[in-house]
Structures are given as C-alpha cells and as structure tokens.
Thioredoxin domain-containing protein
Amino acid sequence: MTSAKPNVGAQIEQMSFLRLGSEDKITIGQKKDRWTMLFVYRGKHCPRCKRFLNKLNAVLPSWLDVMDVVVVSADNQEKAEADKAEFGWDFDLCYGMNEAQMRALGLYVSSPLSDAETTGLFAEPGAFGIRPNGTLMLVDISNGPAARPDLEELLDGMKFNIDSDRPERGTA
C-alpha cells in the first residue's frame, strides 16, 4: 500500500509527536506564530540519517532564526534517547511516529529487512515546510536513505519563500 501525496497549500492534518525530554507533545498542523520545518528520519538503525541530522544540528541556529525545527521517527523512546545521548543533538527530537501519521504525510513506509535493522515499520525521509496557519508549503520526500535535501539550499529557499510570501508550487 502506498501513501497519497499531501496537497501543498492545504491544511496539514493535525498530529502530535512525543518529544524527548519533555512531557509535552509537539503538534503540527495547528496555527502558531512561526513557520515549522518537520524532518522525518528513518530511525536509529540508519547511519545516513545520523550524518544528515549531525549536519542539521551544526547549522541549527541559522534555521531557528527563521523557523521552528522538529525531527521525528517511528523509533521508541529508548532508541531516541540513545541517539540523543550519542550525538548531543539540540533540535526537538520526537519519537513514536505511527503508520497513520506516516501515510497522512505521504511518506514512503518500509518494513525492516531484518530484526537487526529495526523491528517495525518506519518512514523513509521527508522534509515539510509548514506555514504558521498550518498549511503545507513545501514537501520533499524520498523512498530511501540516500536522497536528502541540501540543508543550506533548503534554508535559503525557505527564507526566500517566507520573505517574498511566495505561493505554493506543484499544486496541479
């Protein structure tokens, strides 16, 4: 079963994620004061994800000057804590993304190749630019770990879109 592409310009389905180190959940798809960039990663089992997230963490202050940054996977709390302890990431790290949330975002969903990889369904990478009104402005999804956006280019493009109040593209 594949996931339907999300509609840019439309209200994103409201969903909440458990945030590591807090009893508060992070909710996307609701009105707020700032833009949000949601990054979905495959989980603890993915070394390419770690490289990407380490790069994100290195440029995080530049991102936070412009928007909120949320990172989520289907991992459980224990796996998310292990990654946070190993890498010392500063962004909001969320865990426990479920299959319905993956599919609502139009993500590719994979089964593990073995129990050594992971033990349940997980989302392939995605990045979502969400306007303060909760509508989806930008979507970047991949069906595997090798294709990731260039963080510098993505931030530059998002700044341009925000500053110029650009409309969504790819709506047809």
